[in-house]
Request: fold
Amino acid sequence: MTKRIIIGICGASGSIYGIRLLKALARHSVEIFLTVSTAGRFVIREELDYEGDLVAGLVHSHSGPSTEAASIYEYSPEDLSAPFSSGSFQHDGMVIAPCSMNTLSAVSSGLTGNLMHRAADVSLKEKRPLILVVRESPLNRIHLFNMGRAAEAGATIMPACPSFYSRPQTVDEAVDTVVARILDHLGVADNRFPRWMGSRG
Ligand SMILES: Cc1cc2nc3c(=O)[nH]c(=O)nc-3n(C[C@H](O)[C@H](O)[C@H](O)COP(=O)(O)O)c2cc1C
Reply:
């Protein structure tokens, strides 16, 4: 069955994590339900050369065969009537990438004032995977406490920390080391990303 994945993009630095994740998923036969916070949209504009319609841009930049293209549905963060606002909506996982400390705080304390927070809360209560790609540095005790609380409630805390053993040469390649782990956790098989196979000697 076609996987359904919910993606949230917050106003933390590292909007490229959310965009690279969307691009990676767009190559697969999945349904993507996207919501971008107001701050997220602002940071995307500041950090990347993205203007206009995010979804249209992604579809346009998708170069794989159309039979493998994902379906992408975008919802306003204010739209609490979106399908994934309800526990009756079945999905295979939600990723917030990047996840701001603001949204981490809302998720860890059960606040559901916007669609992203509500969908994360619902994912936890329905025991569906919730991956928080948190981004802040340094971390204060409140951030650490909130990560612990979210993890205890069932979330996976996956910091926006690239690995370097594959010797990434570009920012995209470094970001993709995190994207690859997210796909693994979502159960989306993708062999384009390098894996550690032991030392090259
Ligand atoms: C350029 C820029 C970079 C930011 N980077 C971060 C960050 O890395 N981590 C973070 O928690 N907040 C960051 N913020 C602050 C968030 O955007 C702010 O807390 C906002 O309220 C988050 O809202 P959201 O959780 O609804 O996206 C940044 C803001 C700006 C303008």
About this structure: Residues 3-186 form a domain with the Rossmann fold fold (CATH 3.40.50.1950). Residues 62-67 have pLDDT under 50 and may be disordered.
